[in-house]
Protein: Lysine methyltransferase
Organism: Candidatus Thermokryptus mobilis
Amino acid sequence: MVYLLEFEISNKKILIESPLSPDDYQGSLDDVIQRYSSDDKIPFWIDVWPSAIALAEFILESDEFSNKKVLELGCGLGLTTVALGFKKAIITATDYETMALHFARRNYIKNIGNEENVKFVILDWRSPWILKKFDFIIGADIIYERNLFKNIVDILKDTMTIHSTCYIADPGRPMSSEFFEILKRENFDFQIVSKREVSYRNLQTGVFIYRIKKS
């Protein structure tokens, strides 16, 4: 069974199907993630994170994504993918989990009406295979596991030119500073371009949006 979430973002109504039940929304997101975890599988994709809401809003307010090639890292349920679809971007949406891609594709078609400008593909950051260059790389709340920081930076090295831009939305976890130290060492420049307050699950979350460029 699936359940429908409705978001109103920058005057766009976005409908997102989720496997979570209404009862799941009585607790915290961390509690829900723990409940649905098994063995080494942690289903971070199973709900919409505040950083995805902030990044979707940022995308919908921008004019720079139209007809641009965009790589999305960790698309989850596809909220930011849908935002890119509204901006007519040419999207490669990726996730580690097959079920996440299944939901992201359904949600994209539900909101955009077709999948002409989007591909949904499996990507393991530890064994990346995408070597083509993109105009933009985006990710919402992807800086959460230290042992993956270098893998993410390596993907940016492989998929960005000096003209490319990466936008990462992050809630400001203390460990994120370690990720940005790696970026510096690998000759990337970065800056915070937006700070947004997101209200979701009866909580207010501050989200920083970083712009990252090759030096």
User: Anything to note?
Assistant: The chain has six helices and nine strands.
